[in-house]
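Cross-posting from the modeling subforum.

Setting up a comparison between two proteins and wanted a second pair of eyes on the formatting. Protein 1 (sequence, then structure tokens):
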Amino acid sequence: MLALFIPFLPVFMKAQGMSETKVGLLISVGSLITIIVQPTFGMISDRLKTIRKVMLVLILLTTISGFFLYQASSMTWIVIFTLVVYAFLMPLDPLCESLSFTTAETLKISYGSVRTYGALGYAVLSLIVGYIMDWFGLHSISYLFAVAGILAFLSVWLLRDAPPSPVPVTIEGFKKLILNKEILLFLLLILIASISARMNDTFLGIHVITLNGDNKLVGLAFFIAAASEIVIFALSFMWLKPGKELLLITIAIFFYVVRFFLSGIVDNPYALIAVQLLQMVTFPIFYTAAIQYLYKLVPREWRATGQTLLALLFFGFSGMVASAIGGYVYNVFGGHNFYFMLTGISTVAFVYGIFLLIRQKRQTS
């Protein structure tokens, strides 16, 4: 469902007559809602010691609201249903990641091998949706959203819940979690790096259209990006070694710098699509290493909440800043300067990552 929402919502809004600035503002409000609901459902899951049941409720509500979003023609209803989808869809991502990681750990298999299927689904849907929107119109995406939601609900219904931690969840434990210095320094790195990544996620489709592309090419761009992740996720057991997470995150951020610089200098949609191959060495390495590093720092009983904090920065705080500022910059200064700004933000994150690596090396020595 994320593949039907994140890549194509800005394109859908743009086609309904919204400017880049208004698209950015609406998505930033959605990100603000994400900031509230993600930790809420993460704590509910930890408190009730069930991820599966919480996910089932969220999937059902997301499916209904997402269907009506892509059926809507009135700007008022588009805004309302967009915010409702944000409220129910965005908490699903960290809960799904937490369930996947804990299940993989229990079964003693690679988390990346599980995550591969997420990348595969995202890639296939991204490609299909672009063609369907061109063939059957904008509102046809609503039926795909409903089908995806029903399949997701049935899949989670058949899953076993993650084994709960025997340690009780307390307010004192939560305070220790959010005040842990190592966690805070790490989350700051994630926040800075995520701002540029989320700006790209939000405006990539619009930039493809701006460079004289169409909906099929938007779908192809996101397909190339997601498909390139599959091998990296599948082989994560080979490259994701304990103790190397921070180094891998910093390397991935360096490739974000390269990716956004190239996105800024290309002047046709096909070249921009080719640049998306760099997704291979950015997001899957960045996010998988970040999850493993976070789980080293966070107690088992707080994993869903810890995963939520990570997603909160990637989809919430960073998304709010990225959408509000990104929409204005794209609208006023154009797509090329927009991507040069992303290059600068990623460079700051890269330098900060090097600082944390040096700090880590001094502590271990």
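Protein 2 (same layout):
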Amino acid sequence: MKGKSKKILSIALGISLILAIALSVFLVKAFNKEEPVLGELLSTERVTVHDPSIVRDNGKYYVFGSHKANGVSTDLASWSEVKTNINFDYSKIFAVGGKWAAHGSKNYNISGNLWAPDVIYNPEMKKWCMYMSVNGDKFYSSIALATADNIEGPYSYVGTIVYSGFVNSTLAAETDYKTATGTDVVDSNYVSGGAWNSLYGPNAIDPCVVYDKEGNLWMAYGSWFGGLFMLRLDNSTGLRDYSHTYETKKDASDKYFGIKISGGYGTSGEGSYIVYDKTTDYYYLYESYCGLNATDNFNGYHIRLFRSKDITGPYTDASGNSAICLSKTDDKTTKGIKLFGNYAFSSLKDVEFFELSADGYKSGGHNSAFIDDSDQRYLVYHTRFNGGTEAHQVRVHQQFLNEDGWPVTAVYEYLGNEISKSGYSKKSVVGDYEFVKHGLDATTGYTDMLETSKITLNSNGTISGDFTGTWEAKSDSYYCTMVINDVTYKGIFFKQFDESAAHNSVMTFSLIGSNNEAIWGSKVEQ
């Protein structure tokens, strides 16, 4: 992939170091060789963007999200709001999707139903391509393409990729169903009791558009109703490639919706995002489970992870489970690596966001991710807080491959730290840690904070405290392995700045278990 980034495949290196004064963004400190040394971004400006999809252009990072919210940054730490013509002309640009969605609601208002766009640069079209969900009640949703010469617009409507919700041939005639399938007879699988069969058919939302390693363009989409699907797109137009056809095969593919890659039967997740990693030659599939709120009974949002050697699957997790559900009783709890749940460390206590005490993070999810030209990995998502409101902000965390080739997520947000590739001394690693075991809970209901426990990594390789086991650091590397309750976890040690007001430099660890659980630790400095 050459030229401009198609997802994010490049990032400018060499963050400038500037002495921090008053409201400045950068602060330079002197550290020994085990301390973080890259320009640490210790003062940040926040942005509120739900379902952030990240893309880079000319040294700037853009996140595009639901409800016409967008942000821009030069350093992945401080963000500002940015608007496009979609903020003002949305009803005209997406009029086709709005008309379709109106079938599901007499008083339909498109303004609050533009969800989770994904933006890429298409070098054949020489255009920025925005794929936008136009959500509708009763599953009358669609995904539209709008293009622009500049990433900040103006964007113009080009066409619609896929529709959902059609329950008869009259409605299907308003879509591309016949063009895609060769028939105007609606498949009986799509209808149940005269309504959309949401256990089978997806809701046409949450696009993720990505090039495979051969340069072919694909779109993943869907939600936790009928599952996540994938369609081949035409590289030259950015629209659906109608020459690429599909067969209807139970729990595998559908002649209109494409290849099934995850979920189905009203279970599993939404918000798919796929990243190809040339280091491992895997495609990594992220999706989000449960309810997106923080304060009510639609709660517990979190990210799950699968991978495949082929962009169309099969996608499996660390335990070897398929991402695809085979029935409505299929247990999604055990499917997918759970990256993190609702967590808090002492450094988060009384840190002020939205003029309230955050006291920890809740319902972090609907992510995007990217790998830069230096093979640095980043996870981008929105998060709510344990502060009694539904306020949310964007967060960026670094990721690192463990020895099994799974991306583990850094404990604290990105503030410019670099990991020590030669590892850390035993003296710097042993000691007391705050410890969070993220578990596998996937309850779509009120979900409280995970317990923050205490453990000690002893110099003799044992773990004591609230959990017991063993630990080992790999020589001349940041890799580490822990065994707790007979489960083997593999990950990394990483000295980074915490999220206290002082931004203390602390040792952390982040590991993934063979049971799909993640464990995090933050050292308690004496």
